Amino acid sequence: MQPRPHIRHAEGRRRGPVPRRAVAVLTSVGLGGALLAGLPAAASAEPAQAAAPADAAAAQPAPENLAALVNPFVGTESEGNAYPGATVPFGMVQPSPDNTNSYASTSYSFDARRTWGFSQRHVNSAGCPAAGELLVTPTTTPQPVTARQFIPITGEESAEAGYYSVGLGNQVTAELTASERTAVHRYTFPATQTANLSFNLGQTLRDAGASSYAWTDARTLEGWIDNSGFCGGGAMQRYFFSLELDRDPTSRGGWSGSATYEADRAQGEVAGGQNGAAVVLDTREDATLEVSIGVSFVDVEGARANREAEVPAGTTFDVVRDAARERWNEALGRIAVTASPQEQRVFYTQLYKTLLSPTIGSDVDGRYRGMDGEVHTADGWTYHQTFSLWDTYRTQATLHALIEPERAQDVVRSMYRHRVEGGWLPRWSLGNVETNIMAGDPVSAWLAENFTLGTVPEDIHDELWDFLVENATTAPPEGVASVGRQSAEFYLENGHIPFYPETQPGLGQQFEEYRHGGSSSMEFAISDAAIGAAAQRMGEDETAREFLRRGQSWQRLWNPDVELTGGFRGMVNAVRPDGTFVTTPEISPVQQTGFHEAVPWQYQWMAGQDVAGLQRAMGGTEAFLDRLDTYVNLPALQSSPGARPSSWDPGGSRYYQSRGFNPGNEPTIMNPWLYSAAGEPEHVNDVLAAAMNLYPDSPGGGVGNDDLGTLSAWYVMAAIGVQPVVPGSGMMALNAPACRRPWSPSVTTPGI
């Protein structure tokens, strides 16, 4: 190996002291305090203060109305899959416009400038379409529309946290806001005798199944909709609704089984296909109509109770909007930053996005539908659901534990109920259905982090720990929806998951795990290390030794014979059932076979739990740093600070096609902090300066979809200067806050 080439370091140093502005060290964090390893004691006494920026006059404290800083349109272009509509933190409902349901844009595309109408539930920035129930469409046509019909957006479209407004081409202005379980719409029509509002039950953002509705009086419509799963996984789920108009319509009716509107139809039920209801109003004297729509996963009575409790009769749209703004200001106010107005908009938009998921699943009376399909009650706590764990264990789990510790306890308790009621811990659940998408064992890492951070309720602590160890040691029994670690026996005996090609017959539910045998093995090792680290902190020494040993099993994938360009040698490879590597020419380090959403050249760094072992495998610290420099393209980062190198640009799909460091997808987002572990923490900020520039205050951007708050949590933690290193360890990496512009963050929460 050639000597490590000279790379420009801060103030010309190749090694030695790190400048204060570029500090990046390790810290051990627990609820109630922080122990900063390697820093003077005074460093933890008050919020980090950045040097005064050149444009210090532009920097200002965070305003009181933080909700107004949020730009919900961020991520609604370029495969971001965000929705711009209204919600409250972790709300059950998210009323928002819909104009597409493709995999590239799951509900709404900003540049389309049109809409079908406004449905009540959306999933935050995911990779597949979901939800989109009860599409509400305002028109002024002679009769209400009975199917999707595009309405052009010709007026102003605006949004902030908890509020959305748009001017439509039919001269209708639509506004949306929400409480936790109730969507509230306000429509302002032109003066007409045919102001119509249609409620479409038969079309969702996925494949709607059976549906039913009934007008219970002149103003109230109630019913249910069956909607399909997510990314090809999961069964149908039933959603119940109860809506109320704020005034009597001129007439009301519906359609059922066909697209023919019947003015006197009072109810309709179909096994699938066209179904819906509508009202007609005279708006020549009163132009507005307000509609409140309660939602429940339990029954119509629950939806009605949610609506009546949160938006009682006579409650106006503006009252609900003001309450939503107040909720957001409280949640966003957990972190205060002094920065320029634009930097504040970027920061609080990302903080907003990571507080959208997981979502509330229980009604106001505590009832919820469990993973067994039965109704249960959350007594004194709030049930949450929809867990994108392959994504969120890396960043969001930690952030929520620190700034929302009480909610984090409710989410932990909800996962415990998954095991009690559904028979196994979740992988990727949507509502009360397990989809089993993605690979690895993310719930183990997620729960281990919460055990360490102290957000596991005491009354379930020991039993949940047993469930966690069970989940990581054995396969689920037959008849359980979750696949868990179905290859547990093979993994424990051989130290890896066998790779089978997609054409291998008979894989069944193990398909994801086996066809991604390489990345699944890496993920299992991370989860094992997380359990081991948490066990160590809990004094479970025997468990700690076993799982920390298993945390090094990634080494079974290391093939020392792979020769790479640049003089590097060795690479992680998927391993066949017979123990042989899947290697060149069958596969190269920049081909995805055997790995999930990334390639071996990217997955080689996913061993943060064993950096010393990774350095040895790569030939020592110098060789490790040389390879890392090449991977992130450090020379380009230093020659053009803040600019994304061309080697990062994935082209096409932002998270599937990248072959270098990819700040837009989960497998690589923790890579920058490897510099800290190798003794060159100053380069963390070289990478972050470019990566954080991909988060603009605009609908587009370079990071792709946020995966229910994962990448936004990454941004927030990088911006305030702390990032989790290994789940369950309690270790954090520190970096200089505000890599793009010096600012001063402070966190006001019982979690830090």
TrEMBL record:
Sequence ranges assigned to domain Glycosyl hydrolase family 92 N-terminal in this UniProt record: 69-296
Single annotated GO MF: carbohydrate binding
Protein name in UniProt: Alpha-1,2-mannosidase
Coiled coil: none
Origin: domain of life: Bacteria
Organism: Litorihabitans aurantiacus
GO BP term, pick one: glycoprotein catabolic process
Sequence ranges assigned to domain Glycosyl hydrolase family in this UniProt record: 302-739
GO cellular component: cytosol
